[in-house]
């Protein structure tokens, strides 16, 4: 079966609906057709400053949420990135075939640097996309389910795979992005021109999977909507309303055109109120299941240890081939 790899950073106390609708919800059905590896990417999470105690907790919360949405550790390999040293080791090799200018063109780094100021941005943040390439290439993944914001990074992964294969002989699979068109970019509730983001959005701009229903409903009620009164899908002219329609449609499975009909002649308030309920119905069981996994951290850590062991077996083999191809003396 073709192989899938994807990762998510433990950079917040909860995943948000952008993460879920853009990427995570694809992860679950792919388990039926692909061999899947899903990773909590804690190495990536230290690129922008962190508190060690908080990171440790968030890593468990991230893994618990993945189990809660339906990642099945019997069928998929679920693990934590720092448990598999080959990620950092391959990243070093790949960084040596990445051009400085090429890395400098990554727009996410540029965006984050503008926000943080270049003195505060770390070299780790700069080389983040190279580590991401290592994550994917180590497992020779064919497909990578991510949101639109990761498209450029994935392009770099493809370029690096092709370059390595050309220079050292065929070693890596060139991965394909797997991006769902309709929900590739969920936007910030308060600023519909930006993506909903764990680190960049204000708390009112994001809907968290683990939020209390009343809190999510309040955020949705205060979402920025657009001028005019009609509820129609028009991301250019009405990005706020369109975002709410996208979320509604993705969670209920009702086509956007049907929602437009349903809300004909009704106001934004109705849409927001009903969406609050839809979100509450969707998130309540996820919150409950996440809590159940968190109530038994020893069991959770065991699941992650088993995942890491399986991941290491694949990753170490790829790394050995890479080390051999670049000319490192075998360690005996
Ligand atoms: N707003 C979004 N719409 C659709 N997909 C999204 N993703 C993130 N935001 C949206 C997808 O979620 C996956 C995991 O994201 P990540 O943890 O790697 O971090 P990110 O892409 O940088 O997302 P955030 O929320 O903005 O995190 P921070 O603030 O920590 O950097 C990815 O597949 C991503 O595409």
Automatic annotation (TrEMBL):
Location of the motif 'KMSKS' region: 195-199
InterPro entries: aa-tRNA-synth_I_CS, aa-tRNA-synth_Ic, Rossmann-like_a/b/a_fold, Trp-tRNA-ligase, Trp-tRNA-ligase_bac-type, Trp-tRNA_synthetase
Subcellular location: Cytoplasm
PROSITE patterns given in the database record: AA_TRNA_LIGASE_I
One Pfam family cited in the UniProt record for this chain: tRNA-synt_1b
Enzyme class: ligase
Residues annotated for ATP binding in this entry: 9-11, 18-19, 147-149, 186, 195-199
GO biological process, one term: tryptophanyl-tRNA aminoacylation
SUPFAM superfamilies hit by this protein: Nucleotidylyl transferase
Binding site for L-tryptophan: 135
Catalytic activity: tRNA(Trp) + L-tryptophan + ATP = L-tryptophyl-tRNA(Trp) + AMP + diphosphate + H(+)
EC number of the protein: 6.1.1.2
Domain of life according to the entry: Bacteria
CC annotations in GO: cytosol
Chief location of this protein within or outside the cell: cytoplasm
Subunit structure as annotated in this protein's UniProt entry: Homodimer.
Protein family: Belongs to the class-I aminoacyl-tRNA synthetase family.
Protein name: Tryptophan--tRNA ligase
Biological classification of the source: Bacteria, Bacillati, Actinomycetota, Actinomycetes, Micromonosporales
């Amino acid at each position: 079966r073709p192989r899938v790899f994807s990762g998510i950073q433990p950079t917040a106390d909860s995943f948000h609906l952008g993460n879920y609708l853009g990427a995570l919800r694809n992860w679950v059905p792919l388990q039926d057709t692909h061999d899947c590896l899903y990773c909590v990417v804690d190495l990536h999470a230290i690129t922008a400053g962190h508190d060690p105690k908080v990171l440790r907790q968030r890593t468990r919360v991230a893994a618990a949420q993945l189990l809660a949405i339906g990642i099945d550790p019997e069928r998929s390999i679920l693990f934590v990135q720092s448990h598999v040293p080959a990620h950092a080791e391959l990243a070093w090799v790949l960084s040596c075939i990445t051009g400085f200018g090429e890395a400098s063109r990554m727009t996410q780094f540029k965006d984050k640097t503008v926000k943080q100021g270049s003195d505060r941005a770390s070299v780790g943040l700069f080389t983040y996309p190279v580590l991401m390439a290592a994550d994917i290439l180590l497992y020779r993944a064919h497909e990578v389910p991510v949101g639109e914001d990761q498209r450029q990074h994935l392009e770099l992964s493809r370029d690096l795979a092709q370059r390595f294969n050309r220079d050292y002989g065929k070693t890596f699979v060139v991965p394909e992005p797997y991006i769902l068109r309709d929900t590739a970019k969920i936007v910030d509730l308060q600023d519909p021109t930006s993506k909903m983001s764990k680190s960049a959005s204000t708390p009112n701009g994001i809907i968290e999977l683990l939020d209390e229903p009343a809190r999510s409903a309040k955020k949705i009620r205060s979402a920025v909507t657009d001028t005019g009164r009609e509820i129609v899908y028009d991301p250019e002219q009405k990005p706020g309303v369109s975002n709410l329609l996208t979320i509604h449609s993705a969670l209920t499975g009702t086509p956007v055109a049907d929602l437009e009909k349903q809300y004909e002649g009704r106001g934004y308030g109705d849409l927001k109120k009903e969406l609050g309920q839809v979100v509450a119905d969707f998130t309540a069981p996820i919150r409950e299941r996440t809590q159940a996994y968190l109530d038994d951290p020893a069991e959770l850590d065991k699941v992650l240890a088993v995942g890491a062991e399986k991941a290491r077996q694949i990753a170490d083999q790829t790394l050995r081939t890479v080390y051999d191809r670049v000319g490192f003396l075998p360690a005996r």
